[in-house]
Amino acid sequence: MWKDLKQKIWAGRGVWTVAPGVAGLIILLRLLGFLQTWEWAALDQYFRWRPQEPVDERILVVGISEADLKKVGQWPIPDNVLAELLKKIKAQNPRVIGLDLYRDLSVLPGHDELVNVFETTPNLIGIEKINEQDPSASVAPPPVLDQREQVGFNNVVIDADGKLRRSLLYMVENDDQVTVSFGMRLALMYLAEQDIISQPSQTNPLIFHLGKGTFQPFSANDGGYVSADDGGYQILLNYKGPARTFPRVSLTEVLEDRIPPDLMRDRLVLIGATATSLNDFFYTPYSGDKIATQERTPGIEVQANMISQLLSSALEGRSGLKTWSEPIEGIWIFLWSLTGATLCWVLRDAGGLAKLLPRWTVISLLFALVGLVGSSYLAFIISSWWIPVIPPALALLGAATATTGYIGNFEREERHTVMNLFGRHVTKQIAEAIWRDREQLLKEGRLRGQKMTATVLFSDLKGFSTVAENMGSEVLMAWLNQYMDAMAGTVLDHGGVVDKFIGDAVMAVFGVPIKRTTSAEIDQDAIAAVNCALAMAQKLQTLNQEWQRQGYPQTAMRVGIATGDVVTGSLGNAQRLDYTTLGDSVNVAARLESYDKTLDGGICRILINEETYQHLHNQFPTKQIGQVRLKGREQLTAVYQILL
């Protein structure tokens, strides 16, 4: 079992080498903040893809438009106009009124009238702007509302790309004074009518419960953020939709009584600027590229989204944006890196390496990417989970690319090993078969030892010693090389493997290195070996004619062929590694070649053993020599001669 496990681990070594490395690199890039902007963009796209949510009818926006400014004739609008607006809104009995207009200074005429409205409207909340770093940039609240503690700050937190994705609920001033945001005050006042109040969690004081909702503060590395400013008490803003998501009427429509008399009853009414010239707009996830004013959302609608998130969570349990912890996100990234590496590793033979990635691998990666984006998008629209998509996507593609490079380098090394082992001694067809089955054949840069049935052929020149004595060394080598080239080529032509040259002897094997599994395949090897021997005889006859013209000596040859069990594999060390065949059948073939040199066979005497004879099925004329005792063997061997 342990051995099988080790083999499986070794077989997938490319995956286990690449996947952790790529995942680690992506996680490092993410922690350094290089992917933050991309992750924000992915979140923004999910917001834009998300189906439009139902309009929150609890909130009504009273917008001050360009037409209203023209009607009033000045900005800021006079106190008397604002007082009249508030009176008409109060008359409709809204539950809460939010005034998202700075009113620290009087705008005559009508200041006393406005102060009176402020003093007699307990459900009215005004705004202030707090800037501890630069107090001169702060904007004070309306004095009357400040005295009555009917004020909330309207500070917002803008991300580095200029978009607003977070809501600030509380701030701590002077290290101990907690101030509440405009939106939070309005939501708490609205919910108080239903006896819903904020309660801290018993397990963590930073977590608070509000009705059905549970809120925990934003931290610096939540979601796609890296080392973000998490001062105060922030939450990720789960927008309801783009601009004009909430019911809206204009200031003029309210002043001229052109709205239903009970339109605002029991609602949370927000008053704020929507006119383009007032520039109270923000870029949000729905803005897309920041290129046009109309793609921005009025500040009053941003406030409406903040309030709606609090109300929907408390009353309906609508979830805010949820994020994973950093360890879980790291595992998520690693799993997608593992997926990319595995796909390339498993499918590496599907299309070859003619292109950067095999065709089927590319298709699989595309499906994986769709699965990644689809699953994270579904988690977003169903449960408001912000699951990282950019880092795992980069990990998927990065691991696929790295694995492809690893495979390319690995296969180059394997091909080099195979070519070193076989060189020019196998046919193209055998080389392709070896390469196709290299995973089964190669082990740690070597061909594994295998027991198989093969046919071994040994050939030797008759009277070579005498020829060598009468020829000069250079002439002898040229003559012998001419012979060896011819014989080796003949072996390759018949599908054999040239195992080795030993002096003037040639050892060839038929049926290696791909294991034969059927009797018919073993028959074919035996027949191929005999055909090869006959072809060698014809080739030698042609050589003799050439040698006669060149004044070289002519010669004959002997061939021994034996079929049986052999062991094949590579022998040697890293500097010299040879593929070879061992076993009793090799010895039998060698002994048949050298048996009884007085036994004539013409230009080529071919002797075979009993096993080879049985596999030939009488396809060649033969003569039985008899049961003989071969040199070095105790058992008798049945010997047959192939007749030319």
Can you walk me through this structure?
With 644 residues, the chain is α+β, with helices and mostly antiparallel strands. It is built from 20 helices and 25 strands. α2 runs antiparallel to α11 and α17 packs antiparallel against α18. The radius of gyration is 44 Å and the shape is rod-shaped.
Largest sheet: 8 strands, mixed
- Which geometry do the CA atoms define? rod-shaped
Q: What's the pLDDT, averaged over the residues? A: 87
* Unreliable segments of 5+ consecutive residues: 1-11, 290-294, 350-357
Q: How many distinct beta strands?
A: 25
- β-sheet strand percentage: 15-25%
Helix percentage: 40-55%
Number of helices: 20
| Content-based structural category | alpha+beta
Q: What is the terminal separation in angstroms?
A: 55 Å
Radius of gyration: 44 Å
Summarize the structure.
With 644 residues, this protein is α+β, with helices and mostly antiparallel strands. It contains 20 helices and 25 strands.
Provide the descriptors you would attach to this structure in a database record.
644 residues, alpha+beta, eight-stranded mixed sheet, 20 helices
Q: What's the arrangement of secondary structure elements?
A:
Layout: H1 2-11, H2 13-31, H3 36-49, E1 59-64, H4 66-72, H5 79-90, E2 96-99, H6 111-119, E3 124-128, H7 143-147, E4 151-153, E5 157-158, E6 164-173, E7 177-180, H8 182-192, E8 198-200, E9 208-210, E10 213-215, E11 233-236, E12 248-250, H9 251-255, E13 268-273, E14 281-282, E15 297-298, H10 299-316, H11 326-346, H12 359-383, H13 390-422, H14 428-436, H15 438-441, E16 442-443, E17 446-447, E18 450-461, H16 464-469, H17 473-493, E19 497-502, E20 505-510, H18 519-550, E21 557-572, E22 577-582, H19 584-594, E23 604-609, H20 610-616, E24 622-628, E25 637-642
Parallel strand pairs: 1-12, 1-13, 2-3, 2-13, 3-4, 21-23
Antiparallel strand pairs: 5-6, 6-7, 6-11, 8-9, 9-10, 14-15, 16-17, 18-20, 18-21, 19-20, 21-22, 23-25, 24-25
